[in-house]
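Q: Predict the bound structure with pyridoxal-5'-phosphate.
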Amino acid sequence: MTTRSGRHFLQIPGPTNVPDRVLRAMDFPTIDHRGPEFARLAAEVLEALRPAFQTRGPVIVNPSSGTGACEAALINTLSPGDRIVIMETGWFSHIAWRQPAEKLGLQVDYVPGTWRRGAAPEDLEARLADDKAHAIKAVVVVHNETSTGVTSRIGDLRRAMNDVRHPALLIVDTVSSLGSIDYRHDEWEVDVTVTGSQKGLMLPPGLGFNAISEKALAASKKARLPKAYWEWEGILKANASGFFPYTPATNLLYALREALRMLNEEGWPNVFRRHHVHAEAARAAVRAWGLELVCENPREYSNSLTAVFTPEGHDADRLRTLILDKFDMALGTGLGKLAGKVFRIGHLGSFNHLMLVGTLGGVEMGLRLAGIPHKDDGVKAAMDVLTVADRQPEPAIV
Ligand code: PLP
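A: Predicted complex:
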């Protein structure tokens, strides 16, 4: 049996590394979820969540994975047979949205994408302009496609919807962007924002979230897809006095309270800038290695992960396995049609310069050991980006 020393490097694009402060915050006795102490906890957490989504509206928290929160968004707002548009961005637009939506009995217009670019506002506009009768009830977009490292421009997509005055709801999946990439629920007039706990929010898996607009809330009063556990109405009613209509995940809520405190202490613009700088450094490393990014459009580069093609004839999973065995580092696998062709580096959540340099060092050594043609200049290129960024006091981007 192999023994390992030092820390495991969990560099998949989520679940991410849970900070010690958050782990410690969970390590307390579970309290009565119908008592006054719990009510104070819930009130604090539900309020503190709003800035994370940049919303003044309510945020629903359920014990669930991200996929559960996707289903909750659909069944609370839609009725059997409703037509919806889902923009194809990669594996997650399919597995977390198209497939469940079809199983729920919705009619899905799946607008084709290349998996190398974000959802195109012009494609959405054309699709909605054709729908003069407003049969389309919702548009679903994955903000940050975790399988490809491409971030769609939600503000531009919203403008496209407004330009053709289409009343469909806008539902956005931020599972791998919320808490890492600037995301504006209210400003972009998003109706339901979906996320999970295990990525930018720096928690273990186990919580799913829906931030909801007034329009989404109004739609939920008429929506007829069957629901019970997920029904927003009962949850919002109980939340108003600091409770839940079921037994909540109390210790994960302790963790959430602590993680939100940490993000607030750092300051949201600094959180976004940190992710941007680490992503720029990771991309510089990829270019210096002479490898190819999956994302083709620099305006759509993801700040939370980088997906990289291995050269033709070199299996990306063999590289990942070798890196796991030799250096105890987990990288993300290629998903769907990118299986075996792509590896993904997660650089989101609780993360710093030296973790990035270590991660890229592990990849560079793995490339050598796997005999994959590359130049050994990636780590240096990343360090150059990091040091240049550190000399600039003002945020380059937020
Ligand atoms: N959507 C996106 C963009 C994701 O990255 C994921 C998971 O990684 C999901 C949905 C599904 O979330 P979960 O695996 O927590 O159910």
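A: DSSP finds 13 helices and 14 strands in the chain.
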